[in-house]
Write a structure and sequence with these properties.
Keywords: Glycoprotein, Secreted, Signal. This protein has 144 residues and is an all-alpha fold. Helix content is 65%, strand content 0%.
Amino acid sequence: MKSAALAICLLSFIGFSTQEQTPQQIHQQLLKFRDECMKESGVEVSAVTSADQGQFDDSNKKLQCFAKCFYQKQGYIDESATLLISAIEAKLPAEHKEQALADVKKCEGMSGVDACEKGYKIHKCFFENIRARAAAAQAKAPTA
């Protein structure tokens, strides 16, 4: 199976759904974006897989451009990798909007030497926020 953790991670972070698409359709669209961006950036599958697991190679320019491409195709960033907060907010379900929007805004000030690096830093910021929120939720979960 192709590594889909980046797509799944993003889907769980944003938690978005639309009335027009089922979760499976959204997942398939994210996989399509991932495949297109891997081809466009020329990134190695292993680099994406490692990043999916939290092992980021900050020197990998192709990985940086992959991240920018992936978020741009979703409409979360523009060509210069500026977060499009209103576009993201429009995709958030009401029950998760406040928390998810707060997480997104934590990543709003990312900068880089170019748009690829900035998009990559946004991805890392999202990933770190997801991981922190998941760890906090797990710590609160009752143990059996």
